[in-house]
Amino acid sequence: MIVDDHAGTRKMIRKLLDFLGTTFCECATGDEAVSRAREFKPDWVTMDVHMPGSNGFQSTEALRKEYPPARVILVTAHNEPHFLRLSHVAGAVALVCKENLFVVRMILTNEMTSSNPLPSTSDSPSPTVS
Fold first, then answer.
1. What domains appear along the chain, each with residue ranges and CATH number?
2. How far apart are CA 57 and CA 126, in angstroms?
């Protein structure tokens, strides 16, 4: 699931992750993502931090309550120091700067090829910032 209020960013993330050979669901708001999560059942979600309505932290927390198996990677253009703590509290597995979106691809590639996948967010010490 790709969640961002900018269609161009959603398209860029889709292109970046097309190698996975998987189905994507795109949402323009966090509220839309939460409402579609139970139906779509995403394994992974890229979630923008700044969006109209609920922000990415609020939407991540709500999405994880609606569909707990989803693992969320928060993405932001504004790397504020307190974002790491907020992303961990919300239940995200990582926080990635939009200028380094290739890190999202690296995380997912590692997850798909590793015999030691990322721990669930409840076991994770803290999300990564890149």
1. 2-129 (3.40.50.2300)
2. 15
